[in-house]
Amino acid sequence: MNAREHFHALLDSLRPLLHADEGFTLDYRAEASEFVRFNRARVRQAGQVQQVFATLALYLGERHARFELSLSGVAKEDRARLRHALERLRALVPSLAPDPYLRLNREAWQSESAQANAMPDATAVIAQIVDAAAGLDLAGIYTAGPQYQGFASSWGALGWHAASSFNFDWSLFHANGQAVKSAYAGQRWDAQAFARRMASAREQLEYLGRPALSLAPGDYRAYLAPAALDEILDMLSGGFSAQALASGASPLQRLFAGSARLSPLLSLDERITGGLAPAFTSEGPRRDLRLLAAGQPGERLVGSRSAAEYGLTANGAGAHEYPLSPVVAGGELDEGDILSRLDTGLYIGNLWYLNYSDRPAGRLTGMTRFATFWVENGRLQAPVETMRFDDSVFSFLGPHLEALTREPETILPSGTYGARQSGSRALPGALLGRFTLTL
């Protein structure tokens, strides 16, 4: 029985069990993933994971509770587990207090998407990785396979999403302990594209053998690679939340209030089409949203609770009100011209340990990570000692954003704790006229 049939078998068994005054929602998540771990450029562990999870919620008026289940994938066994979960909820829900902000989507919406992308042959991919890393100290993990998500409600809503993807996340280590971190992800493995990524990482690795340069705190020209910009966007993602904006907790508060601006080069969409996240959440269908338009604030992400509390219209954003498929539009900077346009300054491949130093002002702090290089006259010179930055997005992504690379890079979440994360991002690199290092 495949995942879709398993999901529908659970639904068919659940519906007749409901009492007339009860309602339910059922969230379903499954994966069939390959995992291959590399160390010193050799395969150290390889295996497969097949797992299924479901969350059953029972509603009785304004009272509700949820029960999370780990399932076997065998319909007969899982129908019994689901029935037991329903009985547990039925005993609990009447004793709970009513939820004043409960706003259920009772529409009978339908959404189905199945991206039938053939996954690359694991044997061929592993062979290419091993060949490309010959003579290198490579550590990394390759994950690939289909992921499934389903949703249904007793009011007739039904959503199904299936998509396959791969993600190879790796680091090349120098004998001095320094490393270059890289990633290649998507839905179709391109041997030439991977070879280019590996060649770039090899080139940067050679420079790590040079004595590291210690910079004084101050303002520098800088290039943020897509992976570094991804860390910035991750911190800002909650800034589009209707709840955060209404409560004053958004780092983009000043932007939406009209007292600060971002660069007109910056446009950001929550793009459903082509993304790896489903076109629905437990709160209803999602749609494409323009979150930033040429630096100006666009739509907010509105979940049902925010809609109820603040008198807004929900747009399927989900309870957390985070973008699931953000896409930053590319610019006019060709990849081959990055160093020449930077001229003299910092090439920053990664950032980490990010936090807010002043959330209302959109001010972030964090550390450079892995391969950050000093560039002079358009040429890499030497690695840079780890530095802390502290700067406002309204500065480095405002008047000091000079250019974005032409082709956004697909970035998939690499987290596998409990299960592979879903969703996707497409981000360019960013050339900055000023970026502030503090120590």
From TrEMBL:
Record key words, sorted: Hydrolase, Protease
GO BP: proteolysis
Molecular function per GO: metallopeptidase activity
Lineage top rank: taxon: Bacteria
Metalloprotease TldD/E C-terminal domain span: 217-434
Pfam families (alphabetical): PmbA_TldD_3rd (PF19289)
PANTHER family from the UniProt entry: CONSERVED PROTEIN, TLDD PROTEIN
Protein name: Predicted Zn-dependent protease or its inactivated homolog
Organism: Azotobacter beijerinckii
